[in-house]
Amino acid sequence: MSTGNMNLTLKVWRQKNNKTKGALVDYKLADISPDMSFLEMFDVLNEQLINKGDEPIVFDHDCREGICGMCSMFINGRPHGPKDLVTTCQLHMRSFKDGDTIVVEPWRAAAFPVVKDLTVDRSAFDRVIAAGGFISVNTGNAQDANNLPIPKMQADAAFEAAACIGCGACVATCKNASAMLFVSAKISQLALLPQGQPERYRRVQSMVAQMDAEGFGNCTNTGACEAECPKGISLENIARMNRDFASAKFISEETI
Amino acid sequence: MSDINSNIPEGELTSKWTKYKSSVPLVNPSNKRTIEVIIVGSGLAGASAAATLAEMGYKVKCFCFQDSPRRAHSIAAQGGINAAKNYQNDGDSVYRLFYDTIKGGDYRAREANVHRLAEVSANIIDQCVAQGVPLAREYGGLLDNRSFGGTQVQRTFYAAGQTGQQLLLGAYSALERQIGMGKVEMYTRHEMLEVVKIDGKARGIIARNLITGEIERHFGHAVVLGTGGYGNVFYLSTNAMGSNVTAAWKAHKQGAYFANPCYTQIHPTCIPVSGDHQSKLTLMSESLRNDGRIWVPKKKDDNRKASEIPEDERDYYLERRYPAFGNLVPRDVASRAAKERCDAGYGVGASKLAVYLDFKANTERYGRIEAAKAGNHNPDKETCMRLGTAVIKEKYGNLFDMYAQITGEDPYETPMRIYPAVHYTMGGLWVDYNLMTSVPGLYCTGEANFSDHGANRLGASALMQGLADGYFVLPYTIGAYLSKEISVKAIPTDHPAFVEAEARAKGILDTLINIKGTKSVDHFHKRLGHIMWEKCGMARNEKGLNEAIQEIRALRAEFWKDVRVPGTADELNTELEKAGRVADFIELGELMCIDALNRNESCGGHFREEYQTEEGEALRDDVNYAYVAAWEFKEGVNFELHKEELKFENIKVAQRSYK
């Protein structure tokens, strides 16, 4: 099936479920094309495993366009692999060399327990959003969209924060498994927009409380999250969240 | 000739919806609290419906197969969402959006549904902005618009190349808010495997917990499927890897008619296939056709680099053939034109199955404008290109980056190579005006239904339809049914109908595991995709379709004898999930070919080679085929045709022309 000429050794984390221990298992792959995506290389490997009668490696993936945030491989010690600003599904084999050994592990964080092989449970992120990552507006209550002009710079800044795909690379790369970049991106998006003001301080408090309850670690400003984020979400968001969180402490109860 | 009732309300087209929604029976708040609604799918159509119904007070359960509702494939929509706001003062109106959509759909959609869609389109934008969706804005702080194919106004709202993501995250946040309040119970990593029917009505679903493999029974007074399209029947498409027809197909097998399955949208601007390893295709947004010009060399088999081919040796074939709409003709027209050039030997790139999408002219134009803004009224070419590239980068940066990442080429330097790919399916479960399928109590929204796009969907209309259905249509129309169900108590799930449906679902899983054949699921999926693309793809003919039907039947028999599904059914088993989906795709593929064979005309995305004008345009047969083909599933794998006649009372049906 493959048409290329790269030979690779893969060391892949295999773990049957969250009750059993896992381990790295070695696989040899031949004739890999540099034009393949990293996940297509895994498709080739899985096809070979199935043909041999083995169980294929389970990994999360869906859109394969870098936007759904489902793919989540920790490749050679980096979430989404060696290239900046791409997800695993958009990583191509031309970023590797013939003869390379590639180590592939799942996201590792207490709040993201391994489900099977390279698949982890990221439902903690949903619960953080459910705690306040929204504007409380029911369907049918909206005024005409252009009744609320928003300066372009402000709208663009909100958009940049909103570009987060919720993949969890920030957590996976952080030595504290902190989710501050993810949480602050949503808080920033809404804090930068006029629609987000009424609930601004209540939101930051409830989302941070939920983040802590999920078992994510604290932020020690190493900046690894920003460096590894496939969507380039900025550390400024964390600063903004911290400001809002601190401000919330000094604002009277009635306004929260 | 209709033998099915679409329940379109009486009255003037323009006041039908307003009047109807004011007279739909209501369910009082205390009754809503005891009425349960199941929503399958958490994309734009599912999440918006789940959030809205919960806000109204219904008890909602929502299911998705992904690990989070935020990952549904609506997230990948790039270009934009249409709305008849007329913010650009360019003559847009509800009527014009309605007209463009009917015409774009090649006169194969229902007038009443499409008009309603156009009416609520403006509300969607208002709702999304209120939710904090960061749509693109101008310096004055007002919303920006751009053009999409098949229209001559600018009515498309957008958020860079991530419009679907931003709209879905808006709907997702509304959904999570309801989850947080305990008003929606969310079931992630669950796949619907059966519809449960009691006394002819949909009363629940059987779902598999994909982590534990456990089979679960869920009751609902009504069931809503917002489960997306079936483009993955072609194996290679722009759909997500997990996108599937299973929920819709199981509903079909329980009596829901499947309408117009052959209407497939082949999107003209996708990154070409690079090899056998390819697992999916990637779209380059239609919005790029605002600023990109499509061309091929005038000389056959021209092997020169794009930059070495002088201007007068380039054939801008869309501008040549369709001067009025140029590069912004509808998708079906643009796709066929690309195929025509490549088939004739003018294709580019290594495979020769590609055409150029070139941004140079508009980059230079933008650069000139930027230079003038800075006071330089006589800029040199290099300055223009430098300034213009910055403008292009702001508009389409993420798409250009994606292209570079996938192909290894820099689209700022050389034109993109593009080719058509399967993108969207206009067909789907048949629904009436209320979005109810032919099974009472079973509803279908978004791409999963057939309703609004006729034989070809216009760009930026999928997001519009998904959100229209979920926020503004279904929450009203479902009241017509639920208001009669208020006395029905929740049915315990040990009812024989649940037991029987569960046994059916389990039976299929066990069979798949126990075949223990020699070939992987992907092996069969690829072969199915090949048959579909070659014989039921961009162009179809009687001979090919007849062959395809036979080949698919043989493939089905082979699949059930020889597929290999490793592992067990009581664990996370992605091969088992895929096997169930591919089994359904194989049956659907046959129906698509049967439908394409039945429709002896060309319309929109359905192009039968036997039926074309002298200029190679689609030739409709309005006398014999102005109907919706709604297929009923019959024992074995057989299908019976029902027809819903399409009546055009407000639009003059004409040969579509974009010249």
From TrEMBL, chain A:
The Swiss-Prot or TrEMBL record lists the needed cofactor(s) as: [2Fe-2S] cluster; [3Fe-4S] cluster
All residue ranges annotated as the 4Fe-4S ferredoxin-type domain in the record: 155-185
Pfam family membership, one: Fer4_8
Q: Which GO terms describe its molecular function?
A: 2 iron, 2 sulfur cluster binding; electron transfer activity
PROSITE patterns with a match to the protein in the record: 2FE2S_FER_1, 4FE4S_FER_2
A GO BP term here is: aerobic respiration
Give the family, as the similarity comment puts it: Belongs to the succinate dehydrogenase/fumarate reductase iron-sulfur protein family.
Name of the protein: Succinate dehydrogenase / fumarate reductase iron-sulfur subunit
Organism lineage string: Bacteria, Pseudomonadati, Bacteroidota, Sphingobacteriia, Sphingobacteriales
TrEMBL record, chain B:
Supply the EC number(s).
Answer: 1.3.5.1
Q: Where is it found, in Gene Ontology cellular component terms?
A: plasma membrane
Fetch the InterPro entries from UniProt.
FAD-dep_OxRdtase_2_FAD-bd (IPR003953), FAD/NAD-bd_sf (IPR036188), Fum_R/Succ_DH_flav-like_C_sf (IPR037099), Fum_Rdtase/Succ_DH_flav-like_C (IPR015939), SdhA/FrdA/AprA (IPR030664), Succ_DH/Fum_Rdt_flav_su (IPR011280), Succ_DH/fumarate_Rdtase_cat_sf (IPR027477)
Protein localization: Cell membrane
Residue ranges of domain FAD-dependent oxidoreductase 2 FAD-binding in the record: 37-463
Q: How does it sit in the membrane?
A: Peripheral membrane protein
Q: What is this protein called?
A: succinate dehydrogenase
Q: What is the lineage of its organism?
A: Bacteria, Pseudomonadati, Bacteroidota, Sphingobacteriia, Sphingobacteriales
